[in-house]
């Protein structure tokens, strides 16, 4: 009922390229397409490769070399992102489904810790199936949990403290204090295992089978940037990646790394995936990390979404392909389209300012021009600025 791609799924776009091109052609492809003729791949500890082999996940790590400055010391941080499939059929008890995911995550998080990852982000709604396609309230609402003391937070708090790692945990949140409302939320846990805050998804999709608006409303937490021991981080949850102003506000608030935990399927968005988070890194002079689920999730009852498709009970293929982009637009290859994975980027946060100095995007962005234009554009009597030919 759960997981794994069909045998016809392409395992990896990047591997397809590297299996077809060699030598100078491959270097030219990489330079033009990804910004660097050769990736600076980091070696992975043998024990970790064995762990990955044993538990069937991919592990890859890349360095983003950055020029040393005279007056500021380098601010080297290891970022980790995890993509994973669900483990258990979606008609099994909730606790069993959640525990299945916890059990596999322990191995991947341990691998991240062994590679000295400082900040780790998981995928959207990581501890449950992405059941919002169904529009059924039960049992799916029962997965919603407290951001402070729900099972996912308790599980990750312990690991964050044990490994001295900041962990971002995107969950389905139940706010019991405020009307038992449900939210799509990323919880930020610091390296001591303390919840330092949360961000709620700002933009909720109403496209295809993404019937999330049946369950939760647009977030009410603005654009928080969390100042952690390892840098200033923010989270732009999934569909927010289609909204340039959402990315912009995290930049204005000083983010150095913006994570984009997502759940999206190949029929809908795969051609957009390599562009949006990468473009945001370029436009806002920060690092971005695009993280997608993997596998095909199947639900007990058929559903429709008013788009002419016949009733079905599979959401489609979550294509993984998580990747990291630096502020200069250089990116890593993507993780697999079909397999769980841990992707690590060793970055120097000084690059954010170096790119601002070089390209001047923050200096030239004309915020007050747009503030004025936008405040006019939202008025009911706004007349679009169109010059007619006659
Ligand atoms: N989870 C989510 O917001 N998905 C919407 C589809 C997309 O943005 O590609």
TrEMBL record:
InterPro entries: Aliph_Amidase/BUP (IPR050345), C-N_Hydrolase (IPR003010), C-N_Hydrolase_sf (IPR036526)
Domain CN hydrolase: 77-349
Pfam families (UniProt xref): CN_hydrolase
Alphabetized UniProt keyword annotations: Hydrolase
SUPFAM superfamilies reported in the protein's UniProt record: Carbon-nitrogen hydrolase (SSF56317)
Protein name: CN hydrolase domain-containing protein
Species name: Chilo suppressalis (Asiatic rice borer moth)
Lineage: Eukaryota, Metazoa, Ecdysozoa, Arthropoda, Hexapoda
